[in-house]
Amino acid sequence: MIHVENLTKYYNDFCAVDQINFNIKKGEILGLLGPNGAGKTTTLRMLTGYFMPTSGTIRVKDYLLDEHLIEIKKMMGYLPESAPLYHSMLVYDYLDYVAGIRGMDKSQRISRIRQLVDLCGLDDIMHRSINELSKGLNQRVGLAHAMMTDPEILILDEPTSGLDPNQIAEIRDIIRKIGKEKTVVLSTHILSEVEATCDRVVIIDKGKIVADDVTENLKQAAGQKYFIHLTLLNADFQDVQDQLGAIEGVRAVQRTQGAKSIDLGIRLECESAEDLRKTIYQTIKQTPWILVEFQQETKTLETVFRELTSVHP
Amino acid sequence: MQQVIRICKKELKDYFISPIAYIVISIFLLVTGWFFFTTFFYYNQADLRNFFDLLPITFSFLIPAVTMRLFSEELNVGSYEMLLTLPVTFTDILFGKFLAGVLFVAAALIPTLAYPICIAFMGQLDWGPVAGGYIGAVLLGASFVAVGLFASSLTRNQIIAFIVGMVICFTLALIDKMLLFFPRSLLGVIGYLGADYHFKNIAKGIVDSRDIIYFFSVVFIGLYSTHLVMQEKN
User: In DSSP terms, which residues pair with A4 in a beta bridge?
Assistant: First the structure.
């Protein structure tokens, strides 16, 4: 659906996006993930034709972005970061204006605006002026703006930033609902959002792509270390090290900070992803130690993200 | 073309649903009406010369005040991003906003048609110069709108946009009165640059192609520079 090749953008001397390549398939929800200032917004702005790339090509279906901008804009709905709408307009007037610019005739407009009102929950605010709206409502009007013509491609820049948890859940529901049929690209730095909504993740850092994979694979592939955390009472570190270290599959026993001073925090580094908890528990059962916490560490996207984007000395 | 009209309509609506339009137009009518009628009866002549003579100066205050928000506000709020990613070209946006500005100026001029109508009852009014004057006023307005748009595209701050626009318009309006300060060899060129000079020609009732070309070139230069500035931003 969308093919991006060697896309580069310079702001004067500063390289915001550096030679990135990726493809987006039809019907996919792609999460563009990265720390602040990684180049997410710049990439999206180039995808929507707001910024001209310094070099590189963007193809949407069979259209080249710099030759068929209008056709591409017609297929796309875009919600910029924090949804900057015209302040002085009424919500209805604004949606009507957008529908007009998108080339809908009068009767089409009314029925489509009705649908969007239901989808985005704008019922009570249609007659209100946009500058009176709260952030969440503003964001929903922005979403309605983006979905006006039921576009094939929906591009959302941090769609849930600044919203309260209920609103975030609502917006995610909407995105998932749309994502069943449409291609959605969304940028965010909130990891749980990607886990909750996206099929695929592209992680960018300092203008470069550092990971591009299906969300599940990314979680599994990152890092080759597997840990089990334990907290014991009534135990001596030396004993623990001897006994647990002897279990097959345990590579190392490390001491960690327990929650209280009498706790003994232990971290076991395992050789494989195999679950050793059964063996470990049986070993502990034969000792006078008291087991208060026992947990296998699962790689979250957060660990993956931090490994890929944090600055290594 | 339809997109141009839609954008123009939206801008006009913005003017007329907020108090800006009414305040600006009332001030314009008060100022021109006051200056025109305080001296009108001394001269005892049935013409609108005094009204038109003052127009380049009043326009250089009025028009930048009208055009200052056209791009500045969009850039400041960020709505420009939403507008440009709709299926419109920059040219559509530019002409839409330009047209809205020109129509606004025309709307401000319409109430002043009452002056010639009243004067026609009082004396023998020569309609030639009046018609010329109004054509000239629209042309002058259009070129100042183009200048104001350019000023508005330079900055996110509306006040700066207003001041820059006003300075350029003021210079264009007054430059042929300051010829004194320029070397003799430049006089012809600088005299030609003055908007006032060309406007007065038309307001006499002589519609000369040179004057029309002048106004069209100011419009063109203004709009083209706006295009360049906005292109540079992306």
Answer: A22, A58
> What is the per-residue pLDDT across B126-163, written as a single tens digit (0 to 9) for each?
888 888 889 999 999 999 999 999 999 999 999 999 99
Tokens standing for A174?
């909407």
What is the rounded CA–CA span in Å between residue B169 and residue B146?
10
Same domain, A237 and A192: no
For B213-227, write each residue's pLDDT tens digit: 999 999 999 999 999
Whether residues A199 and A262 fall in one domain: no
CA–CA min distance B3, chain A (Å):
6
Range of the domain at B34: 2-233
- CB contacts of B96 in chain A (<8 Å) are none
Q: Which residues of A touch B10 (CB under 8 A)?
A: 97
**Residue A312 included in any domain:** no
Q: Which two tokens stand for residue A206?
A: 């300092």
Q: Indicate whether A61 belongs to any domain.
A: yes
Could you read off the pLDDT of A204-262 as tens digits, one per residue?
Answer: 888 888 888 777 777 665 555 677 888 888 888 888 888 888 888 787 888 877 666 77
Q: Hunting for tokens 């975030």 — which residue is that?
A: A168
* Rounded Cα gap, residues B234 and B80, in angstroms: 11
Beta carbons of A84 and B3 less than 8 Å apart: no
Do A241 and A188 sit in the same domain of this protein?
no
What does the radius of gyration of chain A's CA atoms come to, in whole angstroms? 25
Q: What span, in angstroms and rounded, lies between the C-alpha atoms of B9 and B2?
A: 10
Name residues of chain A where pLDDT drops below 50. Answer: 313
- Total number of domains in chain A: 2
Least Cα distance to A178 among A149, A154, A145 occurs for A154
Chain B hits for A97, CB-CB cut-off 8 Å, are 6, 10
Q: Are A210 and A308 in contact (CB under 8 A)?
A: yes
For the sheet with A63-64, list strands across it: A14-24, A2-11, A55-60, A63-64
Domain interval for residue A237: 226-303
Asked whether the beta carbons of A290 and A233 are under 8 A apart, the reply is: yes
User: Is B86 close to A89, i.e. CB distance below 8 A?
Assistant: no
CB contact under 8 A, A97 and B79: no
Interchain contact, B78 vs A82, CB within 8 Å: yes
Indicate whether A196 and A241 sit together in one domain.
no
Tens of pLDDT along A154-181?
A: 898 888 877 778 878 888 888 888 888 8
A162, A47: one domain: yes
Residues 6+ apart with CB under 8 A from A129: A87, A88, A89, A90, A91
Q: pTM of the predicted model, to two decimals?
A: 0.83
Largest CA distance in chain A: 80
